[in-house]
Amino acid sequence: MTNEAWCRVRETLATRIGKNNYTSWIEPLHLTALEDGIAHFDVPTTFFGDWVSRNFSDHILALLNAEGHPVGRAEFSVPAQATVQIAPKPVTSKPARVTARRNDEDLPGASLDSRFTFDSFVVGKPNELAHAAARRVAEGGPVTFNPLFLYGGVGLGKTHLMHAIAHEIQIRQPHLRVLYLSAEQFMYRFVQALRERQIMDFKEIFRSVDVLMVDDVQFIAGKDSTQEEFFHTFNALVDQNKQIVISADRAPGEIKDLEDRIKSRMQCGLVVDLHPTDYELRLGILQQKAEIYMAQYKGLHISAGVLEFLAHRITTNVRVLEGALTRLFAFASLVGREITLDLAQDCLADILRASDRKLTIEEIQRKVAEHYNIRLSDMIGPKRLRNIARPRQVAMYLAKQLTPRSLPEIGRRFGGRDHTTIIHGVRKIEELMTSDSQLNDDLQLLRRLLQS
Ligand code: ADP
Ligand code: MG
Known about the structure:
Layout: H1 2-17, H2 19-26, E1 30-35, E2 38-42, H3 46-66, E3 73-77, H4 95-99, H5 128-138, E4 148-152, H6 158-172, E5 178-182, H7 183-195, H8 199-207, E6 211-215, H9 224-239, E7 243-248, H10 260-267, E8 270-274, H11 279-296, H12 304-313, H13 318-335, H14 341-347, H15 349-356, H16 361-372, H17 376-380, H18 386-402, H19 407-413, H20 419-433, H21 437-451
Parallel strand pairs: 2-3, 4-7, 4-8, 5-6, 6-7
Antiparallel strand pairs: 1-2
Helix pairs in contact: 1-2, 1-3, 5-6, 7-8, 11-12, 11-13, 16-18, 16-21, 18-20, 19-20
């Protein structure tokens, strides 16, 4: 009954949104339930769900309503995959959870995105170390560094690399139990286990995996009992010589409110960072994705010139870069036009504008003040105390490095200081940088935060 209605909706959609869009986005949708005014769909990936939700859910809802099914919302979820799972222990754990569909949070692990493989990961200078380390872990063999700690700004490929490791291990050593999940899911599972008094099950599940991967671990900072449990899980696995892979948006030492003992455990393994992309890497990624899209949208072609333009102008992160390309192809196919530079500029105006955003001296002052825990007003104020003067000089140095402003201009923004004061501040930092590794770390972190 519902399915017939859905079939009719699909037919109408096919004529409304075009064959390409239909095949790419609607055909893979699987209607699983219509209840309480919500249409539930299974989708292959989260990305896919987001895209359909943003672009087609209004169409879908309108048509379902027209078919006599009163629905106000569509929900898209990725069904649990058989690939990442914990083999259920006979007595204690609940097999039903492992095979549960839809309710992702209820699973021990998150599902893997099948597109995030080593094959689809483009290697360049900024990520070659991280890539090599991930490969090494995926190849198995004796555990040489534990944990592997990957860090870097948003959208630079941390999650992609972790999924790639999981895929690769499953191919090479299918008997290994690989558990991938976000730190948030770890916490959720932990809290749930506490509430349902199943903490022993929880411990057993987490201590019985061969490879544990926890994504975005900065999330558990400040969450005391979760941290504690994580620490014990971590130690138990390391003691058994099981591989652990962790990701975070910054280096272990830079995560505020993370217990010191956890930080130092993290630093015992191999810590590698993913640097912001450079032009060549961005172009490489675009070329790879463009080929996929050209195969998918038959007849649509994107020239090298347009790809170069995008690589040059969109410098934020890979996720934004991909989003731009996806939109460009979808738009061109929807309106039946060729992908030209003009079309790209039209269709991506908002993304291009956001990427153009210039970093201001105020932003630098604010971030630096926040980092060193001083008042923003002290940045421009007259105090000469070392614990205020040093951060101020750091901000001066970053203002000189990251903005095109002249020294007198920078001086004006620092409470009307003379340009010679700015020169002095910049030199001081340059001098200290050669010997002070803490300062170096601070600068790296700040630069990354400001440029992400
Ligand atoms: P992070 O977890 O670091 O925030 P993700 O791994 O989610 O970033 O990456 C964001 C998007 O960019 C993903 O779709 C991913 O496939 C893509 N991506 C990032 N780096 C690369 C790369 N080097 N090659 C191909 N795709 C990449
Ligand atoms: Mg991620």
